[in-house]
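Thread: Newbie trying to understand structure tokens

Hi all, I'm a second-year student working on a class project, and my supervisor (Dr. K.) asked me to get a predicted structure for one chain before our next meeting. I've only ever worked with sequences, so writing a 3D structure as a token string is new to me. If someone could post the tokens and maybe explain what I'm looking at, I'd be very grateful. Here's the chain:
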Amino acid sequence: MSRLRIYEDTRPDGALAEHHDHVAIAAALAAVGIRFEQWQAAQPVAPGASQDEVIAAYRADIDRLMASGGYQAVDVISLAPDHPDRAALRKKFLDEHTHSEDEVRFFVAGAGQFTLHIDGKVYEVLCEQGDLIGVPDGTPHWFDMSESPYFVAIRLFTNKEGWVANFTGTEIAGRFPRMTPHRSGDA
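---
Reply by user tm_fold:
Sure, no problem. This is what the structure looks like when written as tokens:
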């Protein structure tokens, strides 16, 4: 089940609010400029699937997103708990950073946790299969896939070079909860 927890950025010990309903999550995130939508992730792919398999399965969705958002590049991140580089890949995304372009992710399997730092608040968004999140350029955030990652996400970029992070140098990400191993349907 997708989830949004909202914290004061100085209080990682207790959420101000928690939502599990997609409409409530989308409304709360839209209020701070974040796109959150529920799409159909109907093609069967599992973590560990190749980029070519995932792109072929979701070609129509990818083409529609690329045309509507002016995206220039697409790739897939697909990780299962036994991936040999899972720890290094997790570490790459755990520190607060921004991008000079929108970050759009469509989760077609499993789950991952985006955490956004906006206007004195921290928005922890557990994204699951069917969730599409759009984080505007310049928004401080971090991403966690847990120590035992299990997800497939299609990533779209306006920059042909793909994922480029600008790290903020703050330690805020280390003060907030990390994602625990997760399977769809877990709360």
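A couple of things are worth pointing out once you decode it. The chain has a mean pLDDT of 89. The first helix runs from residue 22 to 30. Feel free to ask follow-ups in this thread.
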